[in-house]
Design goal:
By secondary structure, the chain is of the alpha+beta class. The chain has a single domain, classed as Umud Fragment, subunit A. The strands form 3 sheets. Strands 1, 2, 3, 4, 12, 13, 14 and 15 form an 8-stranded antiparallel beta sheet that branches. Strands 7-6-5-11 form a 4-stranded antiparallel beta sheet, with no helix packed on it. It catalyses: Cleavage of hydrophobic, N-terminal signal or leader sequences from secreted and periplasmic proteins. It is found in: Membrane. It is a single-pass type II membrane protein.
Length: 248
Amino acid sequence: MSVAEKQKKSGGLGETVSVIVQALLLALVIRTLLFQPFSIPSGSMRPTLLEGDYLFVTKWAYGYSRYSLPLSPNLFSGRVFGSDPERGDVVVFKFPPNPSLDYIKRVVGLPGDRIQMKDGQLYINGTAVAREKVGQIDNPDITEVNRPVDVYRETLPNGVSYDTLDLTPDSIGDNTREFVVPEGHFFMMGDNRDNSTDSRFNVGFVPGENLVGRANIIFFSIANGASPLEIWKWPTEMRGSRLFNFVR
């Protein structure tokens, strides 16, 4: 092999490595600062989000903390360019007792709020949140049970509306003590009220530093525990109607 051929081969390999490194750095920047993909592992946010939904989370929505970075290095505390979530936002956050775990819930309580559940009704600062029964869902892919489930539409004081499931009357989470949200913290609840580990239980108040980002759009959804890589299952298991739906 001539010197020119060796240089050409070496240059070609160097270019390939350079392109790969640049692509990885670009992907890291996008994941850290702009968007991060997440999959829904549980049914706590049904009917809004289903297991098998894959969504993008906007990282800049609430600024950046150490949890915005891969591996969550303890480089600084608090948030940079921070802003508070709005009541009703669906948020990915780090589980306070174990920040290696990601949770996704809806913000119902802001700093200083008093939050309580009474007979399945959400109260904020002593006032019942508007709640209206809008029908039933009889679809196990949405409810996880083989029977009709009551659906209630809640409308928060700022006008944000969403559907919640009522799987079980008089469940343990239907009546709680009054929680006073500390400064710099938020109160999170799942839309599947009777099947959600949230701020009513061991999640507790979520520090602002633990917020990862706001759930934005569902880009893929597949049912029955199938993997997106199992392309042969797409014709029967992919939930086409959920693709590119905004999370509200």
